[in-house]
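Before surveying the methods themselves, it helps to consider a single example record, giving the amino acid sequence and backbone structure tokens:
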Amino acid sequence: MFIPISMIVLGTQLVITVADGVPKYDIARGCRLDNTQAFDLNTGQNETVKKCVADEQGAMAQLQTQWSQFRESDRAQCSVDANIGGTPSYVELLTCLQAAKLARQLPQ
């Protein structure tokens, strides 16, 4: 099976990014895109976006302090999963990593 060079290059960049530290996401853009279709009608879209940004910043801060505590394989897989849908999320990344860590602690 032939693997295009571009796929190899993209794959190695992902591994390097994951290994170095928490990925960099555009929080404001992601929150605006995600909240244009679904927002709290009682507070309005601006407040919904602000809440989203606050949640994402909190998750990012938590990830920055806990990143090395997660397995590299989990960081790689969860980084890919957090990008599904085109708008990456620190909240999704953190949730995925925490779930993977907890799953390993379950009795066999």
